[in-house]
Specification:
The chain is of the alpha/beta class. The chain contains 9 helices and 10 strands. It has a domain of 133 residues: 3-Layer(aba) Sandwich (Rossmann fold). Helices cover 35% and strands 23% of the residues. The structure holds adenosine-5'-triphosphate. The site of adenosine-5'-triphosphate has 11 residues, from strand 2 and helix 1. It holds the Pfam family ABC_tran.
Length: 256
Amino acid sequence: MNAGAPVLEVRDLTKSYGGVRAVDGVSFDVAAGELLALIGPNGAGKSTCFNIVNGQLRPDAGAVRLGGRVITGLPPRRIAALGVGRTFQVAAVFGSMTAAQNVQTALAAARGGTFDLWRPARRLGREQALDLLAQTGMAAQADRPASTLAYGDVKRLELAMALAGEPRLLLMDEPTAGMAGTERREMIALVQALTRARGLAVLFTEHSMDVVFGHADRVIVLARGRLIANGGVDEVRRDPLVREVYLGGAPTEARP
Ligand SMILES: Nc1ncnc2c1ncn2[C@@H]1O[C@H](COP(=O)(O)OP(=O)(O)OP(=O)(O)O)[C@@H](O)[C@H]1O
């Protein structure tokens, strides 16, 4: 990695679906240890940006660099192996496996193998899995089948699984979706603590504005595929254009 280079550099990304320009000349960076929120109205282009960064979609133009290296157009598995993890709005875990076995599966996948419940190898990675579960507040749930876990715990498990790949960059689709009050605040505080402790770069989408403005280090705002703001929490919250198109507040001034 280049000394001082951001973990993620997105430059002039453009992607159209037929006549719809879903992402239009978008550029931003994410640094190590930074929690960056990507917000915008429905259809603004957030998922399209995520899918380009992790290789599920090819942009029409523009570049994505990870640690200074161009990764645009590489297949998703390759990009994951280079250190890009992702968690989804609807968690993807195996319900019949325990929490620990789910993390062991993720550890095995990160090493390019498979986890076999029925062979002696089933203890492989258990200690490391337990460590990751402890880091996400799930130590007491390690041996429970994932199907019996509370919703918030499934999201914590998914986070432990994402960390199994030792990502440098973690993309999180609405990490607190479906959670209320205290659980939501605890989840984002956990993500924030892991970001700091591991020097992770985290890019997350989120519809809860209390989560975004209470915890993000910086906020970028998309509207109809264009980046309309990029700055600190207070700066973005006060931005008249952001208020007009997204936050629903009265615009205080027009922009050229
Ligand atoms: N596969 C597709 N085919 C055609 N149009 C698409 C496709 N995927 C997305 N779009 C369009 O591209 C635009 C951006 O969509 P995208 O899903 O990236 O936005 P988003 O900000 O993630 O929205 P949401 O918050 O609703 O998930 C929208 O107008 C959407 O209808």
